Queue: 3 jobs
Job 1
Amino acid sequence: MTGPVPGTAGRRIMGVLLRHLYVLRSSWPRLLELAYWPTVQMIMWGFITLFFQSHSSWVAQAAGVLISAVLLWDVLFRANLGVSLTFMEEMWSRNLGQMFVSPLKPVELVGALMLMSTIRTLISVTPAALLALPLYDVWVFALGPPLIAFFANILVFGWCVGLAVSGLVLRFGLGAESLAWVAVFAVAPLSGIYYPIATLPEWLQPLSWALPTAHVFEGMRAVLFDHQFRWDLLFRAVGLNLLYLALAVVFFLRTFHVARVRGLLLQQGE
């Protein structure tokens, strides 16, 4: 009988390690993700800290503002995942090629993804919104009609992010699937979810105002603090959403066309 060769265990360990290092080296989304989450958390909570330092009575003035902000933010997160994960489930099951043997058109797939995103978002957010009343004495539906406007705009922007992510995953393969979580959190520090846009450095504020989410969260605070609905913020959010949705749909359809020409619909993988 021959015993184990000395050092083979270490070589096998190194073999597995090298395999994953090569995967990491060849996938820029994975490398980005490693440094991404600590950086985003540091930036966002740093701005929250700066705001609370100069507005210590802010929470006391409107107890429901943070919970309302969390729920609206989750609408964005779920709307994005509702599009991107639904699309990636087709890639994981290698079903895209079979789907498009049928008369299904890419633009019809986009419509189905948006509808599925809406359903998943409603299922995800509604229980949390209802539980906020017995747990925290916060009834987010007290916002009234403005809540519908906030919800719709956040939902549409989530679609935009989800379609862009789906296009990138289709182009670069499932190695880029972490973008479904990375992309939406990139806009979190700029959206003013828990603090006004004025808290950001002046050079960063124009970039923030280019996002519909910034207008939505500023509008939410105007309703909660000043009891007024800012139509100007709503119109800007709608205009930006129409622009971004058109760009996202065009990007996804263009990427889908390229993938079909190159035969990528049948070759999804890392």
Note: The chain has one domain: 28-266.
Job 2
Amino acid sequence: MNLKTEHFFENSKQWNEEFNLLREIVRENQSLEEDYKWMHPCYTYSGKNVVLIHGFKEYCALLFHKGALMQDPEQLLIQQTAHVQSARQLRFTSISQIIDLRDIIKKYITEAVEIEKSGKKIEMRKVADYPVPEEFKRALAEDNLLQTAFQSLTPGRQKGYLFYFNQAKQSKTRESRIEKYYQQILDGKGIDD
């Protein structure tokens, strides 16, 4: 028994009934082990994350870590944002919805476990797939120290910066973001470090 997981289910205010029913459904799959990660109940197969229970203001959900590989015959899986590459959610807004979908939920969980057992992997976007804004290209070309530091960052950190810089619609905003994170890049840190 994981005490943090138990506390999650005992102390959740919003979605408590829904969370407990989802837990019951997930635990029916004997292949999964219950764990606690990212402040939520996470169910794993051989140490690999398969499905997570979490809630938001408008809905609670099962998050399938390799949901992009699932068949989704009922067309229920939701990609949280366009930038989420792998995970997909089954969202619920009431206990009755979970009860009505119970058999389908179990099938989705079984499929997610089978995908993990198969060893299938999701081909994640590479750093080269992210556009480099002109302002950052110019900064890299003019500053060898910045270029070396940026290339030394992990691919995930590089993607984080490129994504953030590209979100700005105006050139002056991109330039101010680059200036703001200049020292952090030199220090070998990611955008959220």
Note: Residues 131 and 162 are 7 Å apart (CA to CA).
Job 3
Amino acid sequence: MRIAAIGEVLWDVFPERERLGGAPFNFSVQASRLGHEVRFVSAVGDDARGRLILERMGELGLPAECVGTVSEFATGMVSVQLDEAGKPEFTLHRPAAYDAVRLTEDALERLRVWAPDWLYFGTLHQIYPEVRELTARLMLMLPGARRFYDVNLRPPCYSRELIKAMLAAANVVKLNDDEAVELDAMFGFGERSIAAFTAHWMEKLGWQAVAVTRGAKGSAVRIGQDYAEPAGYTVDVVDTVGSGDAFAAAFLHGLSQGWDARACGEFANRVGAVVASRAGAIPEWTMEDCARLVQRCDST
């Protein structure tokens, strides 16, 4: 499967250290680890942090041909504070280099010829008109690519109008339970049941699938009329940064394999749990790690 992902790449600055991150970048790394071809579209600054990102992309096996270097802004960064449960609070520093992403006509043509199966995008990056224009152009020039929208709300980097447009453009949507509540309040559906929420929006906007992450409770997944609420897995949480992005990559992987709602959700829950049990947004993990997690849960 071929995936083009557009969005932010940045440094998560924790009190004790900096770690590479950014939701679309995290997703891209995890999708690549799952065996898919990925082209990540973004920009870094002409600075030490930017050069280190390009170097790390090479080490991670992620092509950097669609990542530009800009001089007008510094490489993206976000300050991260973790609460006692490992849940992060983010402070974004913008504008950043990823807000100035540009693709040459030659790069756009290479993407068109490459013909990805999926186009991934989030919300944070789309708040700037120039980025939305580039994303809209990619949608037009890649008519065969289905669209995966990871809602991933980061105040104040969204608006009702932006979210409405992104939801309507998507074929598959992933969000968390807090975001589901916010969307309910924003658009006036007013339904407390996650099952009803997913059914309502799938019917209204014609999505192929939707997944709602629920933290320790697991997830809710709907693929067409097939609905499941796979339970979560108990782990010692180090931090949850990147676990939702890993879930998104694993969820799309399951869709590509033709799995049903329960199988997609269970696998994505396991991958997200493994990432939450380790430090940083893109820690190393293997399928064997996921298998051991299942064995551990079966024995408790």
Note: The chain has one domain: 2-298.
